[in-house]
Design goal:
Helix content: 10-25%
Shape: elongated
Length: 74
């Protein structure tokens, strides 16, 4: 078994061509391909901006005491 890791390009028509020399004997082999896109910017940008959903709860009081009160009600 050989594990190979390489970076290559997909052509404009969407094809990925692999020509990989191996040390294996001639015969059938199983191939597993994992495609992981490489970002040219180094960091992928989020697909959605959640900033409109972000908020902050202003809690007045002792949060631990409130938790114990709620737990005691069970």
């Amino acid at each position: 078994m050989e594990v190979l890791k390489l970076t290559t390009k997909i052509d404009k028509s969407g094809y990925l061509n692999l020509n990989i020399p191996t040390q294996l004997a001639a015969g059938d082999v199983n191939i597993v391909v994992v495609l992981n896109p490489v970002s040219s910017k180094g960091k992928q940008q989020a697909s959605y901006d959640f900033s409109d959903l972000v908020g902050r709860l202003t809690w007045l009081g002792d949060a631990v005491a409130m938790q114990r009160t709620l737990r005691d009600q069970w």
